[in-house]
Amino acid sequence: MPKRDFLSSDVKPAGESWVWVTSMGLGVGLTMIVFLLGMILWNGLEVFWPKPVVQLELRPGSTAGLNNAPVFGGEIVKSQVKAVQALAADGSPLPPQREYQLFVGNKDVYGFGYKFIDEAEIAARSRPADVIVAERLEYGNAIFRPRELRLADGSVLPASAPAFDDVLAGLVRQGNERRAAIRRIERDQIGGINRQLEKIRLERRAIEGRGGEMSPADQRRLADFETTVKELQAGYEQLAARARELRQLQSVNRIVYATMDGAERTLPTGDLIDYYRPNQLTILSKAAIFAHRFWKFLSDEPREANTEGGIFPAIFGTFVMTLLMSVAVTPFGVLAAIYLREYAKQGPFVRAVRIAVNNLAGVPSIVFGVFGLGFFVYVVGGTIDQLFYSLSLPTPTFGTGGVLWASLTLALMTVPVVIVATEESLSAVSRGTREGSLACGASKWQTIQRIVLPASLPGILTGLILAMARGAGEVAPLMLVGVVKLAPTLPLDSIYPFFHLERKFMHLGFHIYDLGFQSPDSEAAKPMVFATTFLLILLVVCLNLGAILIRNHLRKKYKTSTF
Fold it and tell me: What is the pTM (predicted TM-score) of this model?
């Protein structure tokens, strides 16, 4: 029997077929990831692209209109074949019918924002050039055809006047400026007065709580408090009067308009945030509106149960919490790994600790949330309140959820990842490098500090990247230790001490959950879910990319034969 030459080209090496199987698996996985990201990107960015508004004329006898009107209109957001097939009079199936989902706006008029209509109900469609899509403070966008402007001086400017758009744009701009001024007065100036009054209240409570006869210094202090309180209250009344005056100015100019079904309405121009004429836009003007709306989504605060406005507080809260978590988990995880790898005597106890660390990585995240609530919030936070904020009790300061406790809870949840990655990185440093350092007279700690740790930094950062990726997307534990639907203030601002670790915060992951499952208007929230998901992925990618760049720089700097 002739010998087979296993090096010849007609014989396949054993296992080559499995190489193709694994490559196919990788290809399928990458395709699924690209498809998922593409779907999120498309549905998330589509929200900000202005769509044309169509006016639909209904067939005689149709009951699909709004308020029994023969016409209505809106933005076509979806076109699909009806799932239920209609039947003819003789029982035979009719051809598949198409239906459209329209965003009709004017939620204050109709009570809803979206409506389905069958294609068979439509007699004709058009795109009126004068239709306006306006963003409002309440009830979402309005879609209408303007009639006239009723100005504060009693004059009326019809929509057909050449100066109509210029005057309306000026009124909208003035309304936005007044709204910003009201915000500064109420949040910054009146908020500052309230903080001073609260500080005086606590100091007065401390003096009165001492008991016994008051000293002359305490009596003078209380008298000064009374004078200061009167001055602050006078300033408060002036600011409140100014805010009321600005609010009244918001409603002196009004726009008269007709909805797409012909109903006439009026609206104060101070309630408008922005507007555009969708059926007169060019590609460049659509791109400009897209960029403007996307920027406002990034920089504004949410409105209307988080279905309108922006998500800046959620972006900022996620970023701050992830950074705090990284700062907390890195030293703890690295020190634990150094002890286990370099100092601890290997034996049953150390093996048990490693098994426990590995098991911690599989504990459900909600369990860490319960632990964080019980230990960090109630025990640690409650103790801090008793020691340093007793005058504010029973109102808790640190004894309630906040960004600090949320960060520490997620740090505990992700510390096993950092410990395992750091241990693997420490063990990868060659024994010869360690012995060379010891032979030169360095101590064990000096060898770890100057030789082992720098060479292990890329692996340590790999563990940190994995921890950041998991921690930034967690939601369940945050619901127990500090995240809220809407946070009135940010954890970082210009108020001393500038960084407020006790404050509650917003988070992109919880924002997605709230929009998708707690929103009163699911159809309006659906586009925002995709847009917020896209931004969460983008934020995680940016954070990880920064850590990867640092890791690559350190890898080049401390490159040895081991790496």
Answer: 0.86
